[in-house]
Design goal:
Elements: H1 3-8, H2 18-33, H3 36-42, E1 46-53, H4 78-91, E2 97-100, H5 102-107, H6 109-117, E3 121-124, H7 137-155, E4 161-162, H8 175-183, E5 187-188, E6 209-210, E7 217-218, E8 223-226, E9 229-232, H9 236-241, H10 244-257, E10 263-266, H11 282-289, H12 295-305, E11 307-309, H13 311-314
Parallel strand pairs: 1-2, 1-10, 1-11, 2-3, 4-5, 5-7
Antiparallel strand pairs: 6-7, 8-9
Helix pairs in contact: 2-10, 6-7, 7-8
Length: 347
């Protein structure tokens, strides 16, 4: 059974043994120990908020139902859904990293510019949203360069961050990191170190690290280590399916125990319970629609409790990252004092 299906009932099923009861009890005890209004002052680390900007019919779960050749014929909801995120973030004083799909940026350039003008970091989420492991190196290079070009044209700034479709930078795609580095990216956030039927990265490092022989910094999606397994919590279907108590417990565990910022992700369509229901498989319906009616409320609560910033700021002090001045021309060197480029550099 895939991770998503297993974990959808995992929390509620933590009752079969003393060990599971202990875990369930730990989660609830930590939630009860501190009044919610005091969590902000105690959760001092700034976490990374990220948005994968895509329309409701463009997910991998819908790939067989809605072929890419039909995208232009479907009424889009991405602009108003993304603007809803703008409003929610603004209400909580949060800025984020927006990983735009090139297809979206080309058709809604004003949306990209609006995100930039609001102080968000602009980054790349491919052009066609095809898993990296389905592409040849030349196909990946072409898709990535096209996406980067249209996003930068729309935003009017250079972009440095990349996130692969469906977290598909897996074993066997090591060549992709070299292409990203040569294309001008300085960090990647494509690794979700869990077991999944679309991407199996269970053995990947959980914390930021350099990718292969490149100067590319990998900033993985956050997980919590329980026993010998990495458990997901930090966005997407996991955020919609799991109880908020578990998500908040996991965030605080990353911040307080591991003393690291967490990386959270969300999609604009996850705040849109009124989107059309597409005829697809039971598994895809489960992944796409479960919990969609409560996403906005739960996200608002998360933004109230925890501190968030764009990836480039949350990880600005990560050792070994790359730093750039306005004179950056593509020649890259690791420096002891190097840092990720800030949002301020996107001007």
């Amino acid at each position: 059974m895939c991770t998503c299906a297993v974990l959808s009932v995992a929390f509620l099923a933590l009752k079969g043994s003393a060990k599971n009861w202990k875990l369930r009890g730990e989660i609830h005890r930590q939630m009860a120990q501190v009044p919610e209004q005091r969590l902000n002052s105690l959760t001092r680390l700034t976490n990374a908020m990220s948005v994968d900007v895509e329309d409701f019919f463009q997910t991998e779960a819908m790939a067989k139902t809605v072929p890419r050749s039909s995208w232009d014929g479907i009424p889009s909801r991405v602009q108003r859904n993304t603007e809803q995120l703008f409003e929610l973030f603004d209400a909580h004083g949060v800025r984020a990293t927006f990983f735009f799909r090139g297809w979206v940026a080309e058709r809604f350039p004003g949306l990209v510019r609006a995100a930039k003008d609001l102080g968000h970091e602009i980054a790349c989420h491919s052009y066609w949203h095809r898993p990296v492991y389905t592409l040849s190196p030349s196909e990946f290079r072409e898709d990535t360069k096209r996406a980067k070009s249209v996003i930068e044209d729309a935003a009017g700034v250079q972009i440095y961050g990349y996130r692969a479709p469906s977290f598909s930078l897996v074993s066997g795609t090591e060549w992709a990191a070299e292409i990203l580095a040569e294309t001008g990216f300085t960090y990647d956030s494509s690794v979700h170190p869990i077991m999944h039927d679309l991407y199996d990265n269970r053995n990947a490092p959980r914390h930021p690290h350099q990718l292969g022989e490149t100067l590319l910094l990998e900033i993985p999606i956050s997980t919590v280590r329980l026993g010998e397994k990495n458990m997901p919590f930090s966005g997407g279907g996991y955020f919609r399916i799991f109880p908020s108590a578990y998500v908040h417990w996991a965030m605080r565990r990353i911040n307080r125990v591991e003393k690291r910022p967490a990386v959270f992700y969300i999609h604009p369509w996850e705040l849109d319970p009124g989107q059309p229901r597409l005829a697809t498989s039971r598994r895809s319906r489960f992944r796409h629609y479960t919990g969609i009616g409560k996403t906005a409320k739960n996200l608002g609560r998360l933004l109230k409790i925890f501190s968030f910033a764009p990836i480039c700021e949350a990880f600005s002090n990560e050792p070994g990252t790359l730093g750039f001045g306005t004179e950056h021309t593509g020649t890259r060197q690791i420096r002891d004092d190097a840092r990720l480029p800030s949002v301020a550099s996107q001007v």
